[in-house]
Amino acid sequence: MEVYSGLISVINNAYISPEMNRSTMWALDAEWKPFAGYGKQGRISLIQLGDDRTVYLFHVIHMKKFPEQLARILQDKRLLKVGINIR
Question: Do the Cβ atoms of 69 and 79 come closer than 8 Å?
Fold first, then answer.
């Protein structure tokens, strides 16, 4: 098992470093509140994106506005996003 030894950036606001534009492949994971009521899924609270140098942790549940650059990365079909059970 290899242990990650790169940089971890915790992001609590809509500003994202321009260096996020350098990657074409991302590891992707998300966490949400486990219970929102019967038959409902909770709001996403944390989005984790990682490349070969940095892991970014986006606390989106605390943000007033979803980061535009993060939305562009998630919507860009040219960028490969790798994760489990991604829809």
Answer: no
